[in-house]
Write a structure and sequence with these properties.
Catalyzes the first step in hexosamine metabolism, converting fructose-6P into glucosamine-6P using glutamine as a nitrogen source. This is Glutamine--fructose-6-phosphate aminotransferase [isomerizing]. GO terms for molecular function: carbohydrate derivative binding; glutamine-fructose-6-phosphate transaminase (isomerizing) activity. The protein is an alpha/beta fold. The protein folds into three domains: about 5-235, Glutamine Phosphoribosylpyrophosphate, subunit 1, domain 1 (4-Layer Sandwich), CATH 3.60.20.10; about 250-450, Rossmann fold (3-Layer(aba) Sandwich); about 455-595, Rossmann fold. It has 20 helices and 27 strands. The model has no long low-confidence stretch (mean pLDDT about 95). Bound molecules: fructose -6-phosphate. Fructose -6-phosphate binds near residues 301 and 353. Fructose -6-phosphate binds next to helix 9 and helix 18.
Length: about 600
């Protein structure tokens, strides 16, 4: 969703602001703007549409200034327009600010300000904060900010310029991410570390409730009580190339192709390949805790939820622990049942690539309030979900830039494989030898994924041949049904084609009415115990005219006219990951056939930080 950048130093801020915003484009936005402090006031440039349009504006009317802020806006309060685009100002243009998140009580605050005669130029909640700061201004911006923050309800990351302190950025965060980068005689601010990678990897990660006063030479943190707080800077290991396309046409394809590497990196972090053991120091359960574990509740959104569904199957089958996978936006409002009020042995697990998804964070907070121990999978160090969880397991996927999640999903499922095997071993469900064999099997994944990637021309040809198809059903049973859900989501989000996932046996209870000769039915069939059943369902849809694709174990008796993308030599627990790679490639090449904006699909944002 929205992106924030800020710079204060001795050189022009403009280059960083524009480059930083470009690096945040992947988050989704519909307008962009920058403001810099100049001797005669704020210089402001805004554009509705892409950053390139903003860049053109700046080229036409260059701006100077060594301290500035920028923003990409994903419209919530008010349509995409120059008026609603950030930065926003107070009436006298003494204060400029950019904001991510939502000020929930903005209507009430706005009404109060209007009674005092303040007029507004935009429909946004953000402008209310700029006007509030001006109305309540007292002594300096830090003092004023402390006062005004107490009036705001909701989530926010704010970066503020005050013409009275022309080299200073005032930052505040509450439930919305912000990072501060340390440069040579300058400081950078961004909502996401990707904007900083080209400039610095030495960053502060402000905590909720922090105010940061950032000048070229220092960053000083304060709490809401106005007292100084100590914060330590950390080094981010992601490198610049991870956030660039490196010769690929799209980030999505690049990230699909990075999967052998990120799976290998994640395996190396959690598994000692010298003796095929799990590195205990990175695991969330001690042997005692594993034995006492009675129930696990997983909550997540979208693709991460599908990883959670995989997690449920893996943990139940390997470790025999009852597991629920919940959509986080539902879980957060669900009735609390008696059992949850006494959470002894009941553990919660949030799964999130960004670590910032609002619903997943709310689900985690609810679980903590209920007294559960809260675990998290996160791809981003220092993200809100990672900080608030009691224990974090990191996916080592590196920055995921394409809006459609691919490599993060595979690493999330991999973490579930490792967690399930660890729990199974600690609970005495599998022997040392069985654990070693399973870990060796996981170690084969990078090679197996690579061999699918090497055949991607076959998937591209199929997508080209079927470009006229408008309805695509993915069917499967058990874990294959989860892979179907993820395959259908991937396809619809990047190609905008109608695609649905159904449990294979459920089709004939209604949905089979939609099947005709213009429908493609893709069956995911990797689970040996129900293979024959899924194959029968394929025959049923074939009889109704659908054309067929099978991703999985090739049938002993070939189905006439059915294309097969084979998965061989993979057991029930790793085959779904391999099937997913085919489905990701199919989604990518289909979207390409349709000329879609693959990395930034319409209406979507990478990190959904609002409800
Ligand atoms: C789909 C996709 C989304 C995310 C979802 C959760 O390709 O990327 O469905 O999976 O918005 O995001 P995170 O994992 O950041 O919590």
């Amino acid at each position: 969703m929205c992106g924030i950048v800020g710079f204060t130093g001795k050189t022009s801020c403009c280059e960083f602001l524009l480059k930083g915003l470009s690096a945040l484009e992947y988050r989704g936005y519909d307008s962009a703007g920058i403001a810099a402090v100049q001797a005669d006031g704020f210089a402001v440039r805004k554009a509705v549409g892409r950053i390139d349009q903003l860049r053109e504006e700046v080229e036409k009317n260059p701006i100077s200034g060594v301290c500035g802020i920028g923003h990409t806006r994903w419209a919530t309060h008010g349509k995409p327009s120059l008026e609603n685009c950030h930065p926003h100002f107070d009436i006298d243009r003494r204060i400029a600010l950019v904001h991510n998140g939502i000020i929930e009580n903005y209507a009430e605050l706005k009404a109060q300000l209007m009674e005092k005669g303040v007029s507004f130029v935009s429909e946004t909640d953000t402008e209310v904060v700029a006007q509030l700061l001006a109305v309540h201004y007292e002594n300096d911006m830090k003092t004023t900010l402390l006062k005004v923050l107490g009036m705001l309800k909701g989530s926010f990351a704010l970066v503020i310029l005050d013409r009275c302190a022309p080299d200073t950025l005032y930052c505040a965060r509450s439930h919305s991410p912000l990072v501060i980068g340390v440069g040579q005689g300058c400081h950078y601010v961004a909502s996401d570390v990707c904007a900083l990678l080209e400039y610095t990897r030495n960053v502060y990660l402000p905590e909720d409730g922090d105010i940061a006063v950032v000048t070229p030479g220092s960053t000083v943190f304060y709490g809401l009580d106005g007292k100084e707080r100590k914060r330590v800077n950390v080094t981010i290991s992601w490198d610049t190339s991870a956030a660039q396309k490196n010769g690929f046409d799209h980030f999505m394809l690049k990230e699909i192709c990075e999967q052998p590497q990120v799976i290998a990196d994640t395996l190396a972090h959690y598994i000692d390949s010298a003796d095929y053991t799990i590195r205990r120091e990175h695991m969330p359960f001690t042997p005692e805790q594993a034995k006492q574990l009675k129930e696990l509740t997983i909550a997540a959104c979208g693709t991460a939820y599908h990883a959670g569904c995989m997690g449920k199957a893996l943990i139940e089958q390997f470790a025999g622990v009852r597991t629920d996978a919940c959509v986080a936006s539902e879980y957060r409002y669900q009735t609390v049942v008696e059992q949850e009020r006494n959470p002894e042995g009941h553990v919660f697990l949030a799964v999130s690539q960004s670590g910032e998804t609002a619903d997943t964070l709310a689900a985690l907070r609810k679980a903590k309030q209920l007294g559960m121990r809260a675990l998290a999978f996160s791809n981003v160090i220092g993200a809100s979900i990672a900080r608030e969880a009691d224990t974090v397991m990191y996916t080592l996927a590196g920055p995921e830039i394409a809006v459609a999640s691919t490599k993060a999903y595979l690493t999330q499922v991999l973490l579930f494989e490792i967690l399930a095997l660890d729990l199974a071993h600690l609970r005495g469900k599998i022997s040392d030898e069985e654990l070693k064999d399973a870990l060796k099997t996981l170690m084969s994944l990078p090679r197996q994924i690579q061999s699918i990637l090497n055949q991607r021309a076959i998937v591209e040809d199929f997508a080209r041949a079927n470009r006229a198809c408008h309805d695509i059903f993915f069917i499967g049973r058990l874990m294959d049904y989860t892979t179907s859900l993820e395959s259908a989501l991937k396809l619809k989000e990047v190609s905008y084609l109608h695609s649905e996932a159904y449990p294979a046996g459920e089709l004939k209870h209604g949905t089979i009415a939609l099947i005709d000769e213009r429908t493609l039915v893709a069956a995911i069939a990797t689970q040996p115990q129900i293979l024959e059943k899924t194959l029968s369902n394929m025959q049923e849809v074939k009889a109704r005219g659908a054309y067929l694709l099978l991703i999985g174990t090739p049938p002993q008796t070939p189905i006439e006219g059915c294309t097969v993308w084979p998965i061989e030599d993979a057991p029930w627990y790793t085959a779904p990951l391999l099937a997913t790679v085919y489905a990701q490639l199919f989604a990518y090449y289909t979207a390409r056939q349709h000329g879609c904006d693959i990395d930034k699909p319409r209406n979507l944002a990478k990190s959904v930080t609002v409800e």
